Amino acid sequence: MNELPQKINEFGEKRRKGFVTIKNLKDEGKKVVGVFCAFTPKEVISAAGAIPIGICGTSEEPIPDAEKHLPRNLCPLIKSSYGFAITEKCPYTYFSDLIVGETTCDGKKKMYEMLGKIKDVHVMQLPQTTKGEDSYKLWKNEIIKLKEKLEKKFNVEITEENLRDEIKLKNRERETLREFYELGKMTPPPIEGIDILKVLRGAAFSYDKEEEIKTISDMTKSIKEAYEKGEKKVSSSAKRILVTGCPLGESTDKIINTIEQNGGVVVCFENCGGVKDIGFLVDENIDPMDALTSKYLNIACSCMTPNNNRIELLSKLIDEYKVDGVVDVILQACHTYNVEAYTIKEFVTKEKNIPYLNIETDYSQTDIGQLKTRIGAFIEMI
């Protein structure tokens, strides 16, 4: 398994190394659409012949620049995203012909107004609940508006056949990623959670999806074969942790690393970009627009009220991954996840009868000492 850590690290480097690739693709005439969130139906973007790409927003580096325009007591993800845009330090933002945002929170909504002064921004108006016919109609109409925006912007026609082809390809990618991250169900898991996270992140910056699918599939197979031969990186005594909450980026790796340096192993990520996003397929047997509406409306995000989908998903994951404890990661000033934390704690501790830890943090590294103390004590308690 000596070559596997290298392959995993290569996926971890895909976002950084992809800077050159995205420039070359732009030089070839490719169109790029920057996206913020799991709610964006990427299949529609791909069906327009454009490349959907996650724009930078997970580093503290541009936050001081952002705070010249934005309040300091704002979510670091929002400040980081805006800071990268105004400083032109993120090639993905810089090279985006269009940026698509969704009204998942008030901070983002207002930031989009400011971002729209320097980039072409299309905002999708997200319903506040998954319940009812009105919400369904609203979100379907927003996906149709996105389709029309892309067609006009890039002078293309997005056909039903194009959409079906992209849905099938994206589903194959999801299935391959699911097979990989479900390595966490094994006892003990064959790799650490930080390695799973590197691959999940890197997949978002893989432009050749066929190559990505093959590479990850081969990697999963190799890891399983090595595991069967007795190669086990994780101790059987490691406490199995599920991480939930806000989106995770490189700046929040401090939490994952601290868990895994103190006797724990992260076996499952119920965050944006994790199971809640790629764990569910788009129905290939109905009208593509209806299929995309159903898939993307039902993401278990705290911006929805009520958010029963998250409780149901957590219950399923805790059982399937044999979880010993749950760590809920809340980014500073993310009010929806912070308010919902009480409900999650009550569910995890009283209904699932396992320990729960709430961590509120930002992108700085100044709280690492505190994290080591709290996480170490949490895992020791388990």
TrEMBL record:
UniProt xrefs under PANTHER family: 2-HYDROXYGLUTARYL-COA DEHYDRATASE, D-COMPONENT-RELATED, DEHYDRATASE SUBUNIT YJIM-RELATED
Transferase among keywords:
no
**Pfam entry (one):** HGD-D
Q: Does the keyword Metal-binding apply?
A: yes
Any GO molecular function: iron-sulfur cluster binding
Can you say what this protein is called? Answer: 2-hydroxyglutaryl-CoA dehydratase
Tell me which InterPro entries the record gives.
FldB/FldC_alpha/beta, YjiM-like
Question: Gene3D superfamilies annotated for this entry?
Answer: 1.20.1270.370, 3.40.50.11890, 3.40.50.11900
The UniProt similarity line reads: Belongs to the FldB/FldC dehydratase alpha/beta subunit family.
- What cofactor does its activity depend on? [4Fe-4S] cluster
Q: Which domain of life is it from?
A: Bacteria
